[in-house]
Design goal:
alpha+beta; Arc Repressor Mutant, subunit A; 3 domains; three-stranded antiparallel β-sheet; 16 helices; about 40% helix; about 20% strand; binds adenosine-5'-diphosphate; binds zinc ion; binds magnesium ion
């Protein structure tokens, strides 16, 4: 950022809660069905139809709130947010307004300073205040077909209308686009971790909007903000924020003023464009939803939800350090995603050596996964198989160097370590009797060297090691060879 300026950023995230049915009716939330297949009088907004709150949406909302460190209000109120849009047949959306489901969160995230290419330089913790998280229903979708100039048809698909959403709003606590980037990724992973949402931006079940303003360094008053929409990936969001910050600074420095407006990110043009100005802003005329009672969340309900939740990442990180002796860095990396954390634990158990399993995952497996663009859950090498490989090395059946080659082969072929070791004849000879036999043969065949060695030429030890390795075609366990040779060369 330009010297002498500071950016101020606040984020709003909409996450689709992972329920089977909609928030106020029994229609399916399945994606990709025939348009309007999953609709009923409630989600079509027909007169007289009454909404009924889906308990599962509240459970998943509670999971989301707890995973983000928010306080859940004992009583919250649904409210009508009134506006006209073709994909909103009721003419209002059921949302929450002045008494939201949960509020006042302080979330600790980890953020990195990055170089121009976006590579992380240094990580540090940071607290983000979450203003609120409320529950609401999604609208439908307008579908446009044909060419704009000739045959253009627009349709309305209401399959998505009534899908449950959690809207998560932060205080304007971010000062750089990368802090915003790290926060959205943290929220995504937290929601996925507790199973509250698939939180996949590509599928549109996580959407985010960024509010951006700038001010001169040291200034307390916020500048005029611009709202950014149409951010289809976390990276697009980061780029759009960066673009806006520069645009605002240039505008103000050249004597202009920032207009409060909503802008879109156009990734092809690599710029933001005006979508609508504040004059067109809505007055939603919120009022309490008369067809739904206040939502009451008891302490017993929260306890029940908590009991069903998986161990949260921070707790799991601490446990990995205590139980498996992992470093903070390893434990943090393994608990960044639940799939990887589960993978690690299964591998550690199968290996019966938690530290070695961690080393193999960090230095070898993650590289292969990254290169193939897969997550731990999709690894062609199952956790138990990785554990078995670590055991083969620990037990001296193969060397660490061979282990690396075996792992690459396991990854490519999906075969188990044992099968590959067998097929390629890699197994080290660790049988003491067999090695003693080879050592004796080698000594018997080298009487001259034996005499010189015993006369004090100790450098010849390497010669004997070399001969034994050669005779075993490189398969003898080097540690055992050393031991046996020491012993046999000493006595006559
Ligand atoms: P609005 O009334 O326009 O919806 P809100 O006060 O509700 O604005 O804030 C919406 C989002 O914008 C929040 O995430 C908030 O933190 C953020 N925000 C508010 N003011 C600013 C500002 N001056 N610069 C950047 N972000 C802001
Ligand atoms: Zn319905
Ligand atoms: Mg607002």
């Amino acid at each position: 950022m330009k010297e002498g300026w500071e950016a101020v950023i606040g984020l709003e995230i909409h996450a689709q809660l992972n329920t089977e049915s909609k928030i106020f009716c029994g229609c399916s939330t399945r994606f990709g069905d025939e348009p309007n297949a999953n609709t009923c009088p409630v989600c079509l907004g027909l007169p007289g139809a009454l909404p009924v709150l889906n308990r599962r949406a509240v459970e998943l909302g509670a999971r989301a709130a707890l995973a983000l460190g928010l306080r859940i209000n004992e009583e919250s109120i649904f409210a009508r947010k009134n506006y006209f849009y073709p994909d909103l047949p009721k003419g209002y959306q059921i949302s929450q307004y002045d008494r939201p489901f949960s509020e006042h969160g302080e979330l600790e995230i980890v953020t990195a300073t990055r170089d121009a290419a976006g590579h992380a330089r240094e990580w540090r913790p940071m607290i983000i205040r979450i203003t609120r998280m409320h529950l609401e229903e999604d609208a439908g979708k307008n579908v446009h077909e044909g060419l704009p100039e000739t045959d253009r048809y627009s349709y309305v698909d209401l399959n998505r209308a009534g899908t449950p959403l959690a809207e998560i709003v932060t205080e304007p606590d971010f000062r750089t686009s990368w802090e915003a980037y790290d926060y959205v990724n943290h929220v995504r992973r937290a929601l996925q971790w507790v199973g509250a949402s698939e939180a996949d931006m590509e599928k549109g079940n996580l959407r985010c909007e960024a509010n951006v303003s700038v001010r001169r360094a040291g200034e307390e008053k916020f500048g005029t903000k611009v709202e950014l929409k149409n951010l289809n990936s976390v990276r697009f969001m980061q780029k759009a924020i960066e673009y806006e910050i520069e645009r605002h600074i240039e505008l103000i420095e050249s004597g202009g003023r920032v207009t409060q407006e909503t802008r879109l990110w156009d990734d092809r043009a690599n710029e933001t464009r005006v979508m609508r100005s504040k004059e067109e802003a809505h007055d939603y005329r919120y009022f309490p939803e008369p067809d739904l009672p206040p939502l009451v969340v008891t302490a017993a309900f929260i306890e029940e939800v908590t009991a069903q939740m998986p161990e949260l990442p921070e707790a799991r990180r601490r446990r990995f350090m205590e139980e498996y002796g992992l470093s903070f860095d390893d434990a943090s990396q393994f608990t960044a995603e639940r799939g990887l954390a589960d993978y690690y634990e299964r591998a550690a158990r199968a290996a019966t050596n938690a530290r070695a399993a961690a080393n193999w995952i960090r230095s070898e497996l993650l590289r292969e996964l990254e290169a193939s663009g897969r997550g731990a859950e999709e690894s062609p090498v199952k956790a138990e198989e990785l554990g078995a490989l670590v055991r083969l090395i620990d037990e001296g059946k193969i060397s660490g160097k061979q282990g690396k080659e075996v792992l690459v082969e396991m990854f490519a072929s999906g075969k188990s370590a044992a099968v590959i070791v067998e097929e390629q004849g890699l197994a080290q000879v660790s049988d003491a009797g067999e090695i003693e036999g080879i050592v004796d043969e080698v000594i018997a065949a080298s009487p001259k060297q034996l005499e010189q060695y015993r006369a004090g030429k100790e450098t010849l030890f390497g010669f004997f090691v070399g001969q034994v390795m050669k005779a075993s075609k490189g398969k003898a366990n080097p540690k055992l060879v050393n031991e046996v040779l020491q012993e046999r060369l000493r006595k006559s």
